[in-house]
Amino acid sequence: MRVIWFLLIWFILLPLQASAAPVTQAQLSEKEKAWIAEHPVINFTGDPDWLPYEAFSKDGRYLGIIPEVLRIIEQQTALKFNVIPTKTWDESVSLLESGKADMMTVSDAWNDPKYLYTRPMLSSPIVIVMDRDHSYIESVYYLQYDDIAIVKGYRYVEQIKKKYPDYNFHEVKNIQEGLEGVATGKYDAMLASMALATYTIETLQLNNIQVIGKTEFSIKILFAIKKEMAPLVDIINKVTIDEKQAHELLKEWTYQKYVEKTDYGLIAELAILLLVILFAALILYFVFKKKSQKYQQIKNLLTRTNSEVDDAIRYASLLDTPDLLPSDEISTFFDDSFLVSQHGKIKSSTLIHFTELDPDKGLLILVDAKGEHINGVLNSLFCKRVLKRVIDQVKARKLDADPAAILGSLEKELQHQLGEADAQSRPNTIGFDAAVAILDKAASTLLYAGANIPLFYTQDHEVKIASADTHSIGSGNTRYTNHIIEISDTTDFYLLTNAYIEQIGGKEVLPAGKRRIKEILKKYELQTMGTQRDTFVKTLQPSKGKQPEMGDITIIGFRVTL
């Protein structure tokens, strides 16, 4: 953690790090030396209240990182700076405009054509500050439902607003107002330079917030110089700061720790390693298959390899076990319910989530990840990450509790996660089927939308189906259809993964199919949920073991009585 923090903070002084030996007066041109001899003292002013970059104390002392930069410039060029204290930023600007100051510190937002500008002397990344309950956030993209504070006037503000035009930005007068707003809950997040944010958090003792991510934007600090002093620009541009000097500046003026990003590389590396092992074993098998004296040896090798692959798959599934809904959690909200989950040798690639949005409203989501064996497990880990992002927004009331909107947000989130990968590097099986149901007891309605997972329900002694849209999450299509089901009496609802519908079994050795499922529901509609569960399981048992499994089977049944 400490190493990562220093690497991130080090970016503040990145432009100052030298690629060669520090510049000395001997490395200046004769013309530049002569100019310095004619202008040995440079009148300088800065921002009186911009720590950690710079500030003037009440007694006129010049504080911050920029004073140290000026000291280094003096050492390398023989220039001397006469620092003129001010009490306000407008006063500093007035000194430069009147010619009483030759040079002043500015950010890259300052682009007045009346002046010349040096190269950036400091470059600080724009970071995301939120409360300490948040984990790492890797992009402004994930703040789309948040209220975001941002200091007006900086160049990066317009860049961010241009890239994210529909986000909820709130301009504040200064860094203190924004950070205190995050600390008190007025704002969800703040975007500010790392140096300014970390220093101010420490100074104000805001212990409940921290830097939790870095953006692709940055702020650059440079010097504005009046045009009459044009040679000064090239002289300052030749100044460099070595690693030791940069470290000392960093150590004195930065404090805050940085939330570390979770490393998902291990999972990908494991998958690649397993594929290499399996591929090598297959090559050996085909090369030596016809050689009888080697056949048994290769067979044993394949047996061991298969066992190792199975063990590795189980290990991969344990890295981030998919959520299965505890039976008591759903039963406390619904009048009666059951859950069936059957899978192969490894963990299920099915994810189930239930959230009680309020005492009379519950959200149920069923996700069935694509792929088999290790592909299914790894895909389910990816899908779980996508699902968690969207569920967090629903829980925070920043995304409407609307099934079709939730499915659309899952699609957008998945595409964003894959956004940086080119088409050839994307897995073929990435994506998942899903169903979202929201029961509102107060309104006596159930709202449903599905991506390849239909909703079966029995009402008034009739079995009905709310059809799902036929495109999965991962197809690129963000439009899904809501179905509103009015509940006036006892109604039973069922969500089934396609593996059950397509699984061959039963005495007739036929797929379950929607017709057979409707027959089961019709026959047992008045029975308890437990009895119905046993019936679903027994339907495929006589010959399921003799037929290839179509995938992980998950069935959720719940009863609503109003």
Automatic annotation (TrEMBL):
Gene3D superfamilies: Periplasmic binding protein-like II (3.40.190.10), PPM-type phosphatase domain (3.60.40.10). Residues 1-20 form the signal peptide. The chain crosses the membrane at residues 264-288. The keyword Transit peptide does not apply. It comes from the Bacteria. Keywords: Membrane, Signal, Transmembrane, Transmembrane helix. InterPro entries: PPM-type-like_dom_sf (IPR036457), PPM-type_phosphatase-like_dom (IPR001932), Solute-binding_3/MltF_N (IPR001638). SUPFAM superfamilies: Periplasmic binding protein-like II. Pfam families: SBP_bac_3, SpoIIE. The keyword Transmembrane applies. Residues 41-257 form the Solute-binding protein family 3/N-terminal domain. PANTHER family: L-CYSTINE-BINDING PROTEIN TCYJ (PTHR35936:SF35), MEMBRANE-BOUND LYTIC MUREIN TRANSGLYCOSYLASE F (PTHR35936). This is Solute-binding protein family 3/N-terminal domain-containing protein. It comes from Sulfurovum riftiae.
